[in-house]
Structures are given as structure tokens and as C-alpha cells.
Amino acid sequence: MIKGKITIHDISKALEIDSSTVSRALNNSPRVSKKTKTKILKKAKELGYQRNSLASKLRTNRSNTIGVIVPRISRHFFAAVISGIEETAYDAGYDVIICQSLDNYEREKKLVETLLANRVDGILISISMETTNYSHFKNYIDNGFPIIYFDRPCEVDKNTNVIINDFKASFEATEHLILNGCKNIVHFSGPQSTTLYQKRCKGYKAALKKHNIPLRKEYIIESNLMENDGIENAKKVLKLPLVDAVFSANDKAAISAMQYLKTKNIKIPEDIAFVGFSNEPISAVIEPSLTTVNQQDFEMGKVATTLLFEQINNKSSINETKILEPELIIRNSSIKK
Amino acid sequence: MIKGKITIHDISKALEIDSSTVSRALNNSPRVSKKTKTKILKKAKELGYQRNSLASKLRTNRSNTIGVIVPRISRHFFAAVISGIEETAYDAGYDVIICQSLDNYEREKKLVETLLANRVDGILISISMETTNYSHFKNYIDNGFPIIYFDRPCEVDKNTNVIINDFKASFEATEHLILNGCKNIVHFSGPQSTTLYQKRCKGYKAALKKHNIPLRKEYIIESNLMENDGIENAKKVLKLPLVDAVFSANDKAAISAMQYLKTKNIKIPEDIAFVGFSNEPISAVIEPSLTTVNQQDFEMGKVATTLLFEQINNKSSINETKILEPELIIRNSSIKK
DNA sequence: ATTTAAAATACAATCGATTGTATTTTAAAT
DNA sequence: ATTTAAAATACAATCGATTGTATTTTAAAT
After folding, report:
1. Does A145 touch chain B (CB under 8 A)?
2. Nearest to B121 among A1, A117, A285 (CB)
3. Is the pLDDT of residue A320 over 80?
4. Among A131, B119, B299, B325, which is most exposed with the fewest C-beta within 10 angstroms?
């Protein structure tokens, strides 16, 4: 902390103008004459005045700040959502505090508490994979605290969620493989405690059903979809007969599986075709380039933030779920020649 | 903002205990009896009390919060540095506010102001590429405000910088190419306004000199090292005679150049070997995998944060520059068989 | 039962800005 | 020159927590 920070009272004393007038001048209130404003602004600059936002927020009971909690900022999808959030927020004159939960429940809980203690006006959150207990949100929701869930929805009680149509995306991804001649399609699924992965799995099943392909339980491999899970999954795939395609619920597992299979001289897509999910930057670079689902990241950030501001300003929690339409990006990993 | 938030005064009234005692109890002061503490804590929980950090910070003149400004949170290097920062900070009981400047000077300036207005106890920053004017820092440095520069140092006046040995890393990267039989090595250089890229360029030159390879000016291609710059650089390389290797000052440009050259049937590393810089995750995945420099990201975050806390607590700005040793990660793109 | 020191609690000011109300100043109208 | 309304400024309380000092309570010692 800098010692001897300049306050409005220092300006007040220096000019022999009451601090209330100084405050109003700095906030460009019409109640202060132009002449006085000029004088005050000049002196403020001269003294190196810097507003103390803490005091201002305390007094006004408004922080003009929103908090964002994502599992991991380095994930391209979340970084892109954050870009959308920041753009919308800055346009509205709001600051954004970015936090990462690292998919850890305890940490997420602490972050929520810290944000609330700092009196953010609202929170945008993509809940951690570990989170199954929503009590750390519930207290605030009941009070009408503005909070919006994105990507990973919170489906207890009435909340506002912004998600993509995971079912449809998965359905289309799987159907795309079927239309390219694949019949024995393995699904790399994520933790079924997460509704998002449930939906992706359902989309996969529905596509099989539509095309009269019998569902084989051993073709659904559940894991946390981390890099290492992809390798383990790939080993399992090699032990299954006939597999000619994989639809992975995220890119990371798809990519590590592809890399492992390549070392085993499996040809992609000729032997096994691949479709991922999320459109991570690596998916465009790997060989063959990975067919994947674009999740409308930037758009999701904008939509979620707009909804949050509606809640903050109207105080009417609307409790809607916005569903964005995903887009299948077809690259080389899924087209059998 | 939630209406009717519970304050210590509500607890005070409910229990007929003075608010000062309530405050001390909540902060676990030894001046409050155990019996009273239990009573207060119970009531606080019952009423759903949540500390107002704004008021607390205002009064104590300590925010227990540090600010971090990086060009872009999605860049793997910065995300890893942030992990190191957060780990160190949380252990010390500090909160971390993460901001991204998007390499934009105006935005960076605004972020610094916002952090200061919110009275962070110190700032960790990797300055934006656009920044050549340091006046937005200078005011605070002069006041002894704790600020540490990492990766991209601020080399005006006396500051504390945490950087890697860019010269040595580049020297070794270039020498590695030479030792693998390359003689006509192009350098993709970054903006020379940034000392970091100056140093990388000097390392390249020094390695050539040591091995008696004449320096050719047209072999140094300066750009912003973005994806598109890599492609443009690759086109220039194709027009130069004899080139058998490229040392790029970052991975991004190296990777897009490699991709472009592959479409032109240039074999990597046989025709042109490549070495990058930063160890982006993509570098391990691209084919051939890219030899690159590991920048000690996580370690850098830890060291920078530790230095910051020294400044915050001792008030003695030490003004040192810590130089971390980089590590060359040798992969397939640089080994001519 | 009284004195005394320590423990526990209450009082009151404070951090820096904001804002409703009161007062003073200015300028227009007579 | 005086009245009057509007404009400009000053006064004073407030946001919620903290903290040095004063007071009260408790418990030990006589």
C-alpha cells in the first residue's frame, strides 16, 4: 500500500472547496460549475489523485464488477468465452475478475465466497467437474443474487443457464461418421455425473438408433477425458473387434488417442475415423486434422454476460436456459477416402 | 447487490454485544472469550453473515490481493506462470486478480489504473508488446509501489524483473542446429523494440560467430510472430537460396511456417530444420514435433510472486533481475537423419 | 469482605467516498 | 436597489469493518 495516498480531502484542503463538491466534480456532476470542475481536475492531476474504489464501492453498494469462474483459463474454449464476457462487460463499464477453479470443488467454493465478500454485482460460472453439491450457490440464489451458469449448467431449481445443444451436436457428429460409412463407432464419454456428458452420450445413442445400428455397451468408454485417459481408451479400442470410428466427447482425449494409435500403425481415418468436441486449436494442427464441434465460445460469453446484466439491472431473475447451436467442423480425421 | 446483507451490527444487535467485540470474535482475536466467540460465530452462521471485504480493506489499508496482467491468458506460457503465481499467493493467504492486456497499450494502462484503484498490494506484469511508454508504471514505481515485471522486462530505471536467459537459450538453440549440420540458418525475429527479442537475436548471432558462420542480414526476418507472420516468413524463406534451417523466436510462427512449407512439399527436418521458442503444447503434437525452448513458466510465476511479497512486506525495493535458466527440448524437427 | 490485576467488553474514532439536505452565492426580474 | 428563483457549494450522515483507549467484569490474593 502506498503511504500518503491522495484523497478527495487533500484536494479539498488544497483548494478550500468542500470534499462533497470535489467528489461531485470528479464524477462530473452537473451540480458543480465548469470553472470549479476545471480547477479540481487540475489539482487532482497535480497531486496524482487516484480514486479509492473500495470506498466508492462500499458507499454506493455497487461494485461495477462481475466475477467469472472457469475450470481453467488456459483451455481455449474458456479463454474464448472470457473474451466474449470481457468485451460485453467493458462496453457496459464493468470490470471483470477472472478466476480458475482447476475443477476443484473446495477451491470453487472459496472463490465464490471471495467474490461475494468483494461484493461483485454478479457471477458467471462454469461449474467444476467435481461439483455435485450446489449449496455454495444456493444460499445466494435464494437471495436473488445474479448468477449465470454457462457451458456446464446447474440444473437444480430455477437457474439461468447458457449452453450449447450438446445432444444435437453429438447426434450430428455421430451421424456424420455413419454417413461416411462407419458402423462400429466407439464413444469416449465423460463423467456421467455431468449432465453435459450425459447429453453428448444420448446424442450418440440417438444417431445410432436412427440408422438402425445396434448399441453396444462396451463401445461406450467412460473416463475423465484427460490426456492420459485418451491413451488408455485407445488401448481398450485396440482390444475391441471391428472398431472403425471414435466419437470423443472432447478433443483432448481424441488427440492423445490418435497419437497413440498412430504409434501402433493404425491409419486415421482409413482404419479408425475420429471426431472430437470443442475445437481446441490443436485439433486443426494435428495430422490428420481433427473433425470437431465448434461450441460458439465467444458468442456464449456475450450472451451469458448480457443475461447477467439483465438480472443485475432488473432484479427479475428470468430463469431461462439459452441454448446455442453448435457447428460441426469437418476436417480430415473423419473422411474415409 | 443483495439487499439487506447482514453486517456485524446485525449480529451485535441480535446478541447485545458491541460490534467491536463481534469484529474481534470473527477475526479470532485473543481479546474475546471463548464463550462469546462461540455465541457470535453461531449467530453469524445463523444469519448468513458474509464479511464485507471492501469495508475491511478500506479500514485496514491492506487488500491482501495482488494483480496480474498478462498479454493473453490463453497462451500456455502465461497460463502456466499464473498457476505458479496463484499457488504461491494462495499459500500466503493472498487473492489474485488476473487480467489480460491483449497486448494493447491503452487497455494495459486502464488495467493498471483499475488495479490500483482497487488497492491491490502489488502487481505482477508481463508488459504488452505495444508498450514503449512506461509512464503508467513510473508514477507508482517512484512511490515505491511493489511491482514486478516478468518475462518481458521493463528496463527503464531500477525495477525488479524475472526473466529467462533469452540470450543463452537462443545461443543454444542456434548452436544445436549448427551441430546438426545446418549452415544457412534463418532467424524469425520479433519486434526489435522489445529487448526480449533483441536478446534472442543476439544469441542467434553469437552462435553463428562462434562457429565462424557469416551473418547474412537477409536471413533475419523481423515480424510480430503471429500465425500469419509465420506464413509470410515461410514465403520469404522459399525465395532465399540454400536455407537449411529456421530458428524462430516463438513457436507460433514456427508452426504456421512449417505447415505452409509442408504444403509446398518441403521436408522437415530434411530440407529445412526448425527450432521454436516457448514450448507451446502444440509443439509436441505437430508433425514433426517441434524442438523448442522451455521457459520455466511455473517456476517464473513462483519466483516473481515470492519477490513481490518481499517487496510488499519489507518495503525495500530490491531492484534485482532474476534470470532463470531455460532448457532446450529436442524433438524431431531439428534432427537431420 | 476488600483490594488488585487481568481478562473481557464497550466506546468512539476512523478508512475515503457519496449523497440528501441546508445554506450561500449568483443572476435575472422587478 | 430589492426580491426571487436557480445555481453552486457546504454540512453532515453514512457505507461496514477495525482498533486504540476506556470501562466493566471476573477471579485471584489478601
Report:
1. yes
2. A1
3. yes
4. B325
Does B45 reach chain A within 8 Å, measured CB to CB? no
B/e letters for A118-146, b = 16+ CB within 10 Å, e = fewer, are bbbbbbbbbbbbbbeebebbeebbeeebb
Q: What is the distance in angstroms between the Cα of A1 and the nearest Cα belonging to chain B?
A: 5
Q: Is residue A315 very low, low, confident or very high in pLDDT (cuts 50, 70, 90)?
A: low
**Residue-wise pLDDT tens digits, A41-86:** 999 999 999 999 999 999 999 999 999 999 999 899 999 999 999 9
Q: How far apart are CA B2 and CA A319, in angstroms?
A: 18
| Three-class SS state of A33 | coil
Q: Average pLDDT in the B38-59 region?
A: 96
Q: What is the mean pLDDT of chain A?
A: 93
Residue B28 falls in which region: left (phi positive, over 0), alpha (psi -120 to 50) or beta: left
Which amino acid residue lies closest to nucleotide D18, measuring CA to C1'? B59
B212-249 per-position pLDDT tens digit: 999 999 999 999 999 999 999 999 999 998 899 999 99
The answer to whether A48 faces chain B, any CB pair under 8 Å, is yes
Instruction: Give A13 CA → C23 C1' in Å.
Output: 20
Beta carbons of B287 and A287 less than 8 Å apart: yes
Sequential DSSP letters for B111-154: HHHHHHHTT-SEEEE---TT----HHHHHHHHTT--EEEESS--
Contacts of A281 in chain B (CB under 8 A): 282
Q: Is B140 on the interface with A (CB under 8 A)?
A: yes
Strands B220-222 and B160-164, sheet pairing: unpaired
C-beta atoms of A117 and B79 within 8 A: no
Residue of A nearest to B66 (CA): A1
Q: Which of A2, A5, A52, A54 to mutate to test the interface with B (most CBs of B within 10 A)?
A: A54
A48–B2 C-beta distance less than 8 A: no
Give nearest nucleotide to A59 (CA–C1'). D15
Q: What is the pLDDT of residues B147-170, one digit of tens each?
A: 999 999 887 777 899 999 999 999
The pLDDT of residue A317 is: 60
Residue ranges and CATH numbers for the domains of chain B are: 8-51 (1.10.260.40), 64-164+297-325 (3.40.50.2300), 166-295+329-334 (3.40.50.2300)
CA-nearest of A115, A72, A117, A66 to A90 is A66
Q: Which amino acid would we find at residue A68? A: V
